[in-house]
Amino acid sequence: MAAIESTTRLIQFQSLLKPWLPTATAIRWRTRKPNVQRPIPDHYVKARYKAALEPIYPDPLVGMPWYQVCGNLLAKKEEEEVGKYEELLAKQFHTRFADAQLIAVLHENSTKAHEIIKIKQMLHGHNMQMVFGSRKIATMALANTEFEPVLRLHVGRTAYLCSKDLQISKLLKFTKKMTSFVLLGGIVQGRLLTRNELQWCSTLPDINMLRAELCSILTSSTSQLSQSLTYQQQQLARSLEQHVKQNGEMSCDGES
């Protein structure tokens, strides 16, 4: 009984006392702030514990047959609907390519509308025209044609400068004035050329001059051949004329 009374008194005495709980406050030293984007790496021991305790989940694809693992074999791509307006743009795109003898492929940087208007005004009257189109329109227009290799250069925003005249040096001068466009390559009479090859072609003489030189070379050989064939006949005719003249002079002297 005495033990029970002592325990009850102790419990009543403890209930009168306020419980004391230790408190701790984390204070940052000076003005140091945590770097959220590049946090401080963990301690070596802590990093080892975290790596050891990181859960490893089983791969759900292990043990499955190949025809179930590769989902692309069963997935069917939905064909996109092509509108009439897109078909019209693709037709105009291909027509401008077919009419041009020289095509420059340009990468288009951020360009304002008034800059494009100035470029069109600069090209007016020189049989040159800027052609703009998305990747989809270019693929619809140039796929399965002689211009299909150009699609490899059509990445991002791409523009084309089509010229009906074969004047590479003139086209390169215009591209230098177009600061918001970067020359990637070009097509010269159906052949895809790089930027360096276009610059090399601009140093070549005019095709009309080369044709005139070729014609002169061909005609010179034929004229030399005709002269060599008729040389003996002409020489024989001259000698006969001289012989006739000499005989005529001798006959005149004998009569006198």
Overview of the molecule:
- This protein has 256 residues and is α+β, with helices and mostly antiparallel strands.
- The protein has a domain at 84-202: Alpha-Beta Plaits.
- The chain is built from nine helices and five strands.
- The protein has a five-stranded antiparallel beta sheet with strand order 2-3-1-4-5, with helices on both faces.
- The longest helix is centred in the C-terminal third of the chain and has 49 residues, at 207-255.
- The protein is rod-shaped and about 195 Å long.
Summarize the structure.
It holds the Pfam family Ribosomal_L10. This protein has 256 residues and is of the alpha+beta class.
Determine the strand fraction and express it as a percent band. 5-15%
> How would you spell out the order of helices and strands?
HHHHEHEHEHEEHH
Q: Compute the separation of the termini in Å.
A: 197 Å
Assign the structural class, choosing from mainly alpha, mainly beta, alpha/beta, alpha+beta, or little secondary structure. Answer: alpha+beta
Largest sheet: 5 strands, antiparallel
- Output the radius of gyration: 46 Å
Tell me roughly what share of residues is in helical segments: 40-55%
Note poorly predicted spans. none
In total, how many beta strands?
5
Oligomer: single chain
Would you identify the CATH architecture of the domain at 84-202? Answer: 2-Layer Sandwich
Subunit structure: Component of the mitochondrial ribosome large subunit (39S) which comprises a 16S rRNA and about 50 distinct proteins.
Pfam families: Ribosomal_L10
Protein name: Large ribosomal subunit protein uL10m
Keywords: Ribonucleoprotein, Ribosomal protein
